[in-house]
Amino acid sequence: MGVVVRYVDKNGCVMERFLSVVHVRDTVATSLEKALDSLLSMYDLSVSSLRGQGYDGASNMRGEFNGLKSLILRRNPSAYYVHCFAHQLQLTIVVVAKKHTSIGSFYNVINRLCNVVGGSCKRRDILREKQRENILEKIASDEITTGTGLNQEMSLKRPGDTRWSSHYGTLINLIHLFSSIADVLEYVGENGDDSYRAEADDVSEIINRFEFIFVLHLMKQILGITHELSQVLQKKDQDIVNAMNLVKVAKARLQIMREEGWEVLLTDVSKFCDKYEIIVLDMDNEFVPRGRVLLYNSISQKSVYQYLSKYVKDYIDNVEAY
């Protein structure tokens, strides 16, 4: 458990210092409380002197009755709890995603993909080698340029609900590494262990659908907006008034995307599909859900275009509602 303290010095300046990393045998709230008490006593500090507390979003830390914050508040009602703005934003987007069936299914596929591609050192090495080969091919064909800071090595990590912007980073890397990831899935499907071959083939088939690519780019754009807000909210000099103004700006950007960004999104998706030879749905055809599709709801639409347009607006409305 990492502990950081913030205090006001004798000059009236707010200071922040890393105190220590404490080993805990378990993460039960009472165990964390004992560990914190022991650490504070080493520096002649007491819970009674606390005037605020904040934690990450793990359930054992933020539980209303049994969490560490509640235990401390019982002993010291003046230790007001303040949740991190940036972390709360990340958790909110995750909650909205999980409430939206198709987005939740999309992230299930992402987790499966991360397991297959990054589940072992050997497969991670294969991904790095495929990435290197693809970069060299693009440099040779003048598709990309070389230079300091360019063409850095990337990896595909499982997104975590309590890690700032991890979902956004995973999607960005997936888009950049798509060709290399497809190569790894093909390799595992042909040469991998029996337990992974079928999974690799199944995941490969799903990510090469227009529906998956559409949700991938939709989430990249939405999380791109909230990622910028999250980065700003992490600044030490942020205040509540400015934070609320920044939230309003982010919501305005989402609204612009809802009303005017649909065509741009569709163009980006179509270009990506053309690049990787993925079949693009005819926008004039009737949208017919197939199997465990990523895009599905109970409202039928006359065409693919109408369906996807409503899909984007509905999801953005859900995000803004939170």
Automatic annotation (TrEMBL):
InterPro entries per the UniProt record, alphabetical: AtLOH3-like, DUF4371, RNaseH-like_sf
A Pfam family: DUF4371
Signal peptide range in chain numbering: none
Residue stretches making up the DUF4371 domain: 1-67
PANTHER family, per the entry: GENERAL TRANSCRIPTION FACTOR 2-RELATED ZINC FINGER PROTEIN, ZINC FINGER, MYM DOMAIN CONTAINING 1
Stated name of the protein: DUF4371 domain-containing protein
Organism: Salvia splendens (Scarlet sage)
